[in-house]
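Milestone M4 deliverable, item 7.
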Amino acid sequence: MRLPLRLGVASVLTVLLVGPFALLAIFVAGSWTPLHAFDASVSNAVHVWAVGHPAVVDAMEVWSLVFSPMALRAAALVLIVWLFRRRAVRLAWWVIATMTAGGVFAALLKLLVERDRPEFLDPVARAAGYSFPSGHAANAALACGVFLLVLLPLGRWRPALWTGAVVITVVTGLTRIGLGVHFTSDVVAGWLLGLAMVTATTAAFHTRTRNERSSWVRTPRDSRAASSQTGDRADRGLVAGDDRDRSAGDEGAEPGLAVHDRGRRQP
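Output delivered:
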């Protein structure tokens, strides 16, 4: 896909994700009875099941700890360091901006909506703070989306990347419902928020790429030749293939958003 198409897809996905999230936020803040009744019925049924399966509860607690927001941010930090070492500076800043914006926005919404967490006489787990949206679900969707877009050019690993991203995102959200610390709408809203933030920042960076009509990352050789280039490298994504460390002889795929264009090279 060329840059205008990628930009259009990211923009459309953002709108499609923000709409349902906004509706959920309005229904929760407005105490819409059907939604609250649904959340309560699901939470009560799941809680009854969880009380009878302590081993599963322990497994869910471990999963929630391993894929907690702080753990996912630490993993993103490793990814950022790796990108800087690969000289994918723009892409590294995209990861920083996306993870930071998503985490801050989710925290602010919790304070704005002030929804209490589910309450049970015999809870199987406890969590501090407000409930809407789920921070675990939002950060799981956020981090998995970031890793997926950055590492997709590693063609041979694409099935594993897609599988891992979906499993981590979905299971992390479900464990929060199973532990009784979030309602179903909290988790769904977290997923929508995390994915919407990824698509929104992707659209923003693609817009800047289109406006600049140049590569996100340039080696000294690219900089000397920039004046003679036509600008079609901007259509290759956030990282336009200039991250390659030619001195190391690395023939592997380069990191970047969406698709790595292996097409024509400039002289």
